[in-house]
Amino acid sequence: MEKEPAPSLDGAVVFLTCANGGISTRFIHEALACGTVRVYATARSPRAWDDDRIVP
Question: Is the pTM of this model over 0.85?
Answer without folding.
Answer: no
